[in-house]
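We append the chain.
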Amino acid sequence: MSTPRILVIDDEAGIRAALGQLLEYEGYEVRTATGGAEGLTVYGTFRPQLVFLDVKMAGLDGLEVLKRLRQLDAHATVVMISGHATIQTAVEATQLGAYDILEKPLDTDRVLVLLRNAFATRQLTEENERLRQTIASRYEIVGRSIGIRALLERIDKVAATPARVLITGENGTGKELVARAIHHGSPRAKKPFVEVNCAAIPSELIESELFGHMKGSFTGAVSDRAGKFEQANGGTLFLDEIGDMSLSAQAKVLRVLQDGVVTRLGGSKPVQVDVRVLAATNKQLEEEIAHGRFREDLFYRLNVVPIAVPALRERREDIEQLAVYFLQQFAARDGMPVRDITDEALRRLTALDWPGNVRELRNTVERLVILAGGPTIGAGDVDQLVGRRSAEPTGLGDWMDCATFEAFKLAAERAFLLAKLRAFDWNVSETARALDMPRSNLYKKIERYALTRESTLA
């Protein structure tokens, strides 16, 4: 770890000498400057983590130097020192971004406590920035295909507006990434982004989750609780898999979109909310409307700007770039060197079908990183650990050799279930929910057809 650097800017030689001696004794690297102009020059080359800056100096005074330092570096940590500080001076220094202000003569104990606090604050700020960058990279949309370029262009256009967006696409295509990109490109970027997976919440709890509840409004409501609409106030609410929302919840969401007001379950006091709603689904909502499972008026409220996320098979030219990107992500996560992968291995990945889309590709790359032997992932590793899954039956022509109609039905059902399980990364609960099938029935069919994860390797 490098030694922290501190710059002292003061036109009094005694202050420079005393403060410099104290700081060096405490293990800091110290530079001094006799005035504002010299201090600005030294700052540009020395790049200190903290500056002690005198308020009253000949030539450029401390407040003017502070202003220029903050222009040079918006994150500069500056402590003002003054022999006759006034409340007005302290207020002005704070408004210009000073971390603190100390009075002369300087108290050694206070200086040391301030340094400890200032560097702890700076470290926390830097860690938060690294975390934000990590999160941003995690949700990056990767690709150079025509489909992705068109998608990014539409995101850029709609992000700056308050319009509601309906995001459609298959499971694993990255609908959440699109929603987050819209939020981060919007004027609401610094406000909350709140996500609700409508398919993962039981229908009897979805209204409490969205609108909140009052203590005692139902069994288990032991305290008042704000719902997701209130939590997202001023920001963005992302309703994922909205096609799975109950009709009663749909009616209440529609009222919130119309009136901008929510009322908690068991409550009577309406709460005004300012929320931008983004919704996503893997279902054809027009068909859901035709079958009476989705409200047509809610569809038109949500579908102001439609965005369709392309399936991975529709942008195969992005697979190599995505695979390398995931290799880099896993290396950064695990603190390991990036694994090399051969061109032939990348071509094998590109040739495969990806029913689970980008999510499946990411999981597959992680499997290769963990299980592939040697420092380089080769074509043999892909064949062994991923396989040539495109050999599975994909159309009627592949089943024409079935001897009986019953054999045809069994083959079709097996292939259908296998594709769905892959799409949900073998999460049986999610797959059963999507198929509207009891989980116990799905387990029986998995056993009947001898379906295992290894089926994807055949």
In short: The chain has a mean pLDDT of 87. Residues 315-387 form a domain with the Helicase, Ruva Protein; domain 3 fold (CATH 1.10.8.60). The radius of gyration is 30 Å. The chain is about 50% helix and 10% strand.
